[in-house]
Amino acid sequence: MAHYKAADSKREQFRRYLEKSGVLDTLTKVLVALYEEPEKPNSALDFLKHHLGASAPENPEIEALRLEVAEMKEKYEAVLEENKKLKTKLALYEPPQDEKHGE
Fold first, then answer.
1. What angle is formed at CA 94 by the lines to CA 89 and CA 99, rounded to 5 degrees?
2. For the residues 30-51, what does the mean pLDDT come to?
3. How many independent structural domains does the chain possess?
């Protein structure tokens, strides 16, 4: 009988831990959202994964990295455009390939 009470006590501690950390509330909200979804998704698991990931508080490091990636993409696009313009400009001053071989 003592073994049963120990297991029950561990379960209760774990339940309180989940409740205190907000896990139960978050899971309940996501499951309610799935229940209220008019057109059920093909994959309930994907729905849960998507909504759990979206409901997590945004880490400031992640947001900073997203901004950095966006800036790098802009710089990359600008460098590609500059490269294209410089190649066009260079083509005006370089002799065609046929003339180089004739010299």
1. 150
2. 90
3. 2
Count CB neighbours of 36 within 10 A.
7
How far is 31 from 27, CA to CA, in rounded Å? 6
Q: Which of 15, 53, 51 is nearest to 35 (CA)?
A: 51
Place of tokens 């409901």: 55
pLDDT, mean over the chain: 85
**Residues 52 and 63 reside in one and the same domain:** no
- Give the single-character DSSP code of 22: T
**Domain check: are 47 and 73 in the same one?**
no
Residue 85 three-state SS: helix
Q: How far is CA 29 from the centre of its chain?
A: 21
The pLDDT tens digits for 54-85 are: 645 567 888 888 899 999 999 999 999 999 99
In which domain, by residue range, is 96 found? 59-103
Structure tokens, 12: 């209760």
Same domain flag for 45 and 69: no
